[in-house]
UniProtKB/TrEMBL annotation:
Name of this protein: Fatty acid hydroxylase domain-containing protein
One BP term from GO: lipid biosynthetic process
Organism annotation: Chiloscyllium punctatum
One GO CC term on file: membrane
Keyword Transmembrane: yes
Domain Fatty acid hydroxylase, residue spans: 191-242
Length: 245
């Protein structure tokens, strides 16, 4: 979930002014795509190379750290488990819905105060698009808050409810035992990368004229977005891109 002003600007620039690109534009697009592929291969390849070279040393040190603190995390998890009397559904709901939603509103609540008042200058001076939404229009802000709350309560929450039995069937997500250190590391790296790729390409897909007109346009109504606009989207986009991906 993220705001995408820069990607958007770059993409619109790439698209040029018309829907039918001329041969020159198409050639430069191809070159641009090829350049991107080469850059991605270089960055990922270098990362993998460095990781492979230092794998044993790095994992040994991290394993030492995890070994030293592993008991700590396991005992905290055990405490949480017994506090909720082994009710794994409550733990799942807390971890996937309550804590992320509270974090979203607490952090954005602070930024909303800044956006609504235009103060303190210590923070507003770092605005990227100066003079826009500074301070933000109350009616526009209320409508955005309503949309984001609707997406969280009526779309994210039911999806989490539906996902629980499926995740339980595929392997218990809230069992008493924490996963091993290597597994955590692998999942963090792999899923982080996967999410970036899926998020980027699904976003590009939503810029297809048909999808843009009917779905994605809503997300870009705010041309100078604020924090909560990361979840300001059409219901279809929220379900597909913000929750599934
Ligand atoms: Zn977009």
């Amino acid at each position: 979930m993220g705001s995408c002003g820069n990607t958007e600007a770059r993409y619109l620039k790439m698209r040029g002014s018309g829907d039918q690109p001329n041969p020159g534009t198409s050639q430069s697009q191809e070159r641009h795509v090829w350049d991107s592929v080469k850059k991605a291969a270089f960055i990922l390849g270098s990362g993998l190379f460095v990781f492979a070279a230092f794998r044993n040393t790095v994992t040994w040190h991290l394993q030492q750290f995890w070994g030293a603190s592993g008991d700590f995390w396991q005992s905290q998890w055990g405490k949480a488990h017994s506090y909720f009397q082994g009710n794994e559904w409550v733990l799942f709901l807390l971890g996937t819905m309550v804590i992320p939603t509270m974090s979203f509103w607490i952090l954005n609540g602070f930024l909303l105060i800044v956006d609504a008042t235009g103060k303190p200058q210590l923070i507003t001076r770092y605005r990227i698009q100066k003079g826009k939404n500074d301070p933000v229009e109350p009616a526009k802000l209320q409508q955005a808050i309503r949309t984001v709350a609707f997406n969280q309560v009526f779309l994210s929450l039911p999806m989490v409810v539906v996902m629980y039995p499926i995740m339980k069937w595929r392997g218990n997500p809230c069992g008493t035992e924490l996963p091993t250190f290597h597994w955590v590391l692998l999942e963090l790296c792999f899923l982080g990368l996967l999410e970036e790729v899926f998020f980027y390409y699904s976003h590009r897909l939503f810029h297809h004229p048909l999808l843009y007109r009917h779905i994605h346009k809503k997300h870009h109504e705010w041309t100078a977005p604020i924090g909560i606009i990361s979840l300001y989207a059409h219901p279809v986009e929220h379900v597909v891109r913000d929750v599934c991906i």
